[in-house]
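EI: anyone free to look at a 220-residue chain?
SC: sure, send it
EI:
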Amino acid sequence: EGDNMLYMFLLNVLTPAQEPHYDPWQLRVLDSGFDVVDAALNIPQPGFVADLEMGNPSLSWLEPPQMGEVSNVQIEVSFLRRVKDVKAILVSLPEKYRHDIQHKNQLRNVNKLFPLTIDEEWRIFDNLRYIKVLVEVTESNQAQIITSGTYQWQFPVMVPLIEPFASEWYVSLCSDPACNMVGQGGILASFPVLNNEPQLPAKTFQVVAQTGDAKQKQPP
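SC: here you go
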């Protein structure tokens, strides 16, 4: 009681065959007597994305994450059928997390069938809060089709010393290669990715100090 808490619920929802014209969502918080203690009404409905069938993106650590240390992470996305109009994959890190990519080769594309850009660098990692993978586009500015399959990307991440208030990651499919933030324009769909891997406590180091008055052993 009195603490700020953040809760997330993932629901399996059967969507209608056609997108409703206007059908806002509603959220109510009930007490033990089922009385409403708080509510959020008129929540805008999520937009429908046609011809997009994919599994839930996932996150896995290649070694146990430890607070204050660098660990390598793998982001995985599975497409159940081919996808078009996607020009970039954006991976957004939680608050306090930072990627630790020092050289472009540290951002690895695992599945060689993913249509990476050829004439320009496909890796975007200039901002420590996200990484971006660019998809090849044709001369008519149409994105190459991403065939059905499972794709992974790996890169090093600095694990924070203090767990952030919200620890979920986000994977976004972008129609605009300049996309850089969840909720902004140029994004077809964004997916929260749970980060439930237990984090090892930070290393502790014993500091041995010698005062200036301490006598030093003289060489023989």
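EI: The mean pLDDT is 89.
SC: 👍
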